[in-house]
Structure formats: C-alpha cells, structure tokens
Request: fold
Amino acid sequence: MPLHIQTPLLTSQPLSLAAGASVLLKLDALQPAGSFKIRGIGYACEEYARRGKRRFISSSGGNAGIAVAYAARRLGLPAIVIVPQTTTQRAKDLIALEGAEVIVHGATWQEANGKALSLVGETDAFIHPFDDPLLWTGHATVIDEIVAAGEEPDAVVLSVGGGGLLCGVHEGLRRNGLAHVPIIAVETEGAASLAQSVKAGRRIELDAIRSVATSLGAKQVSEQAFALAMTADIRPVTVTDHAAVTACKRFLDDHRVLVEPACGASLAPVYDHAAVLNGFSKVLVIVCGGVGVTAFQLDQFLAAA
Ligand SMILES: *Cc1c(COP(=O)(O)O)cnc(C)c1O
Reply:
C-alpha cells in the first residue's frame, strides 16, 4: 500500500466557465499531509526503508518536511526536520504533530540544510524536497490515476518550485504514452526560477525569493527540470502574487478547499482565461494544495499585494 491516497478527479464548472474549456481538477490538496508531496516523498521513504535506512532527515519547514514526518510515522521510523529560525510556529507545530523531531538551526535555509546534511549517517536517508529521481517516480502516480480514470487531457497545468512535480508529471505522461501533452508550468513572478532560466537559456539562480508563494521559493530549479524545459513541450508562465492569492480565494468559495498561493498560481491562468490556454479543450490542473496558509492569511496577503 502506498502512503498517498487516490485523490478525487472532477470537472469544475466554475473553472470551465472561466477558462472557456473543460477543466479537470486533480485534488491533491486532499492528500494526507496536505499536498502532492506525499506521492514522491512517500515513495522515496518506502524505498529507502527497503534499502535498510532507519531514519529520515529533511531540512524543509514546508510541505516536504510535513510529508517526510507523515511518511516516517506511517513507516514506524523516526524523522528529524531541521528548520531555520525564520520558520513559522505553525509549520513547526504541523511537523511535530506528525511525530517528527523539529530542530531549529541557523538564520537561513542554507544553514539548516548544512546542519541536516551533517547529521546524515550511514543508516539515515536525506530526503530532498524536489531533486531526487525517486520523488519523480512517486509524483508520476498522479498521471497514472488520470489515465486509469479514462481521461486524456490535452494540456496539464502545474506549479513549479524546484521542479519535482514537473519532472514527476512528465514521467507520468511519458509512462502512459502521453509525452506529447504540453505542460503549462506556472510560477509567481518573484519565484520564477524556471521561467527566467528558460529565457536566459541557462539554469540561473535567483538572488532572492520575492513572493508570498513560499512553497515555490527554490532559487534554482533542478538540472533535470531545466533539461526537460529545454527539450519537452513545457511552457513557462508567470503570475503575480495578487493573481495567485485571488485564485486561492475564488477556489475556496467555488470548491471549499483552502490551498496555498503556490497552488493558486496554477489556478490563476485558468480563472483569468490566460492566452496560454487558448486552443485547448480539456485542461488538467494539478491542485497541489499546501498547508501553509489560513483563510485569514490570504486576506492579509491580498491587502498587502
Ligand atoms: C512543493 C510545492 C510546490 C512546488 O513543487 P516542486 O516540486 O518544488 O516544483 C508547489 N506547491 C506546493 C503546495 C508545494 O508544496
């Protein structure tokens, strides 16, 4: 039994009307641990446990850290999540709630990550939030479920942070004979590490993240994500923070599901009938989810954006 669940797939009338195309929603916001991340991280943790690893170490204070903690609890193994001082109390509480040990170390994620790496012993597995082929293989199950449901989208919309979801969805399309289906890869403007890399023709590193979509805040995408973007039909799109948060609020009203701005980024071009979707008749949106915001915070973001 995998650690993720098979999530609902539904045709959204409000989003279909907004986009002028049939819009399918894959509701990975309903995964245990609150995001798609458990697909890949659950698969990787199971595989590392099978190879004899006895403990998991992560440095993500976000959905990846929560997924590692959840996977460890389900597998009956300990997990340590090392986070920087900037991590919110809410994030630390959510990780601790899953039974993992939370250690606060350093002022930045780089420092926390350095500490995490220094703790990795021979029987430990370090779980990267996006750059591990095992993660991509696990994330690919999201496409297996679409195909098993008898659906064949003519475009897939997803959000990009470090590009783990992108690599996984591409692997899923490929292993189901759908490698030709274009992927609309959405980032917020202040976290556009993929879009800027594609534009520059090389894998750039952002000097800072300037977005409320913190789960998209990888300064640099993985080599694999960049290579895919240069060779497969991947179309980078950027949206404003305001558009991402507005989409979260509309989605909450329309479908009664609260998602992070990182996920709202994918919903924004659909709600806004963006030109990038012209010509498609069946658009699949990966509703990647995220537990990092409250409804109250969305209003605060909107007031500030
Ligand atoms: C991690 C995450 C992303 C980005 O995924 P990558 O694999 O880093 O590209 C998007 N949305 C949510 C909610 C996430 O947790």
